[in-house]
């Protein structure tokens, strides 16, 4: 029974966090038009 209560409390906390982030919305700003380079470009 304690495990069920702990799982329900964890699920409620996670749901509250998701709803809070959704309510706040995305931050203002713009993204860079250049793609991110994750590797070193190959030299010809």
Describe this structure in words.
The protein contains 1 helix and no strands. The protein has 44 residues and is mainly alpha-helical. The termini are far apart.
Quick summary:
This is SPW_0924 family protein. This protein is an all-alpha fold and 44 residues long.
Mean pLDDT: 85
Poorly predicted regions? none
Q: What characterizes the major β-sheet?
A: none
CA-CA gap between termini? 65 Å
Number of helices: 1
Look at the helices and sheets and give the structural class: mainly alpha
Instruction: Tell how many strands the DSSP assignment holds.
Output: 0
Protein name: SPW_0924 family protein
InterPro entries: SPW_0924-like
Keywords:
44 residues; mainly alpha; 52% helix; elongated; SPW_0924 family protein
Topology:
Blueprint: H1 2-24
